[in-house]
């Protein structure tokens, strides 16, 4: 548990944010200066996509949540100032996406996140 000076990261807020239809709640979990790295087939480990700050993260989340797809928080582990979670998604046409995230926390907010994702391909 966090204290007033060091609030705890809230797993239920994360679940509601991931599974919700709007990125606003999810965005509220990020520190203003958060860094978000994405690794996938097109942005490979040697050249990940890196988003800096809540404004860039907000634009990415708005794009993702504007798509016709569902999101589900599968697992979440929080230990001290680190967290990890799995998310499964499905587009309306049946294409599935799976992502795994490792997070560093600061003051109960996400300071750094690395997301590795894969999706169905023909």
TrEMBL record:
SUPFAM superfamilies: NTF2-like
Domain of life: Bacteria
Domain SnoaL-like, chain residue ranges per copy: 17-112
InterPro entries xrefs: NTF2-like_dom_sf (IPR032710), SnoaL-like (IPR037401)
Pfam families per the UniProt record, alphabetical: SnoaL_2
Protein name in UniProt: Nuclear transport factor 2 family protein
Naturally occurring in which organism (per UniProt): Streptomyces coeruleofuscus
């Amino acid at each position: 548990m966090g204290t007033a000076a060091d609030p705890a990261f809230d797993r239920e807020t994360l679940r509601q944010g991931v599974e919700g239809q709007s990125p606003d709640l999810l965005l509220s979990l990020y520190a203003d200066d958060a860094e978000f790295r994405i690794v996938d087939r097109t942005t490979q480990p040697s050249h990940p996509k890196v988003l800096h700050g809540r404004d860039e993260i907000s634009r990415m989340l708005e794009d993702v949540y504007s798509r016709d797809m569902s999101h589900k928080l599968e697992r979440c582990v929080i230990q001290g100032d680190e967290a990890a979670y799995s998310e499964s998604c499905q587009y309306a046409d049946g294409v599935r996406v799976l992502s795994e995230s490792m997070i560093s926390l600061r003051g109960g907010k996400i300071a750094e996140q690395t997301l590795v994702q894969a999706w169905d391909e023909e």
